[in-house]
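cron nightly-structures :: item 1 of 1
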Amino acid sequence: MAAPLSISIEVPVFKGAFLRPCIDSVLAQTSDAWTLSLVWDGGDAESRAILEALAREDHPRIRVHFTENRGIAAARRFLTDRGTDPWLLPLDDDDLLVPEAVARFLAFAADHPWASLIRARRDLIGVDGAPVDRGPLFPFGPRHYCRGMVTDPYNQAQPYLIRRSAYRRTQGWRGYADFKGAGEDCDIFLQLEEVAHFELLDEILYRYRVHDTRASEALTAAAGYEMWRRLLDDTLARIGLPLRRTSAMPPFLFEATPVADATLGDVDFVVPAPAGRAARSLRRCGIAECAIHAAGRAGEPGGWRMAGLPANGRRLVCFIEDSVGIAARGALERLVEAVNEGADLVAADPGDGRPGDAERRLPFSPPMVGEILLVRRALLAATGGFDAAWVPAALQGADLWIQARRRDFRCLALPAAGFSRHGPAKGAPSEADLAALGAKWRSHAETPAVDAGKGRATADAAPALRRAGARASRPGRARAGSGP
């Protein structure tokens, strides 16, 4: 039986002016599925006195720590490293949670367990706690992308709930010393998007207090732009996307950087263990033994893909089911040619390249068969790769296609010329499997991406890809997917 969901509410403490109302807003929650952790990070005397008194109360769900001043990012890391609840909720020492915040977040998290982050709305209050009549400081809505890269890093704000298992796949809270440790919130958003996608909870669950002594007030607009530029440049380097930032102000624009054409020598081939028909076919096609990786364990259908992904390997990865046979090396070379023409993900489709009824029921019409997938490694780094935890094995390829399209990667389905299937053919996905995948993506519309060349929304950025697909897939027809 799964453990009950609970939230670790984490508060770095620096100032005492509004700390007691902040704590009281947690104590007033309608759900008791929370722990509250606070760390005094070398703050003022008033905040220390409040925390010392709170520690003496010895509340069973409250933990109080004292450290020397190290900055906001280090304080957040200190608290998160000591928490154990499945979800964590950052709270600032001058803000408030609405009474239903924990209950509403947990109910939503139970319905969206695949999300790495759940973001809700907030309203603004003043020093006296009364509502402030001004527009939101940051937008609330889906993020926008250019070939895998976020174009609006400012599209983030509290409150947000982070899945702890997703956080552990990141490098954790980090900030910039010259910004007093700030930047940690924008950075963790970027890192978590490389693990799994976000969900939006369209309810006000947080009250953000506007006052002159907030630390964020000391960060000028120019400094904020500089911080976002650094974060995006760091993210490009971390993921390995072949892009460069071309604008100094948001929304940020990017352009492609030159990349040498790939060959089969640039491909890692991943097959399920124990290596069988697919591996033998690869060897007959002259693929080097060091480029063939077999992985997976019984009872983990579909988990072999990410388990077999070699660290720091070649720039392309081809995932092949063991039911697949390869007639000749040219079949593999056609997949690589499609990547050289601009595709980021290529699916060899045993059908005719046209979407079926099941495909039309999901965003971005993914191919239902994922027996042969060639993917840029940077795409896997940007999206988190295959979701073996929440998606049925038969639809993990379709799920990756949807995630890639949503991040503005270019996806292409080619007829599977030169490949053969041994054993029973994969049938249409079951209604239960489709329902599971549809539930994951039910709240995600096909959000416009940004055309890096013109700085405008575009619904289709890949006419050249379609022409390339037609060349690469002779004979037959190809289906290309551009950014959303």
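cron nightly-structures :: done
The longest strand covers residues 198-209.
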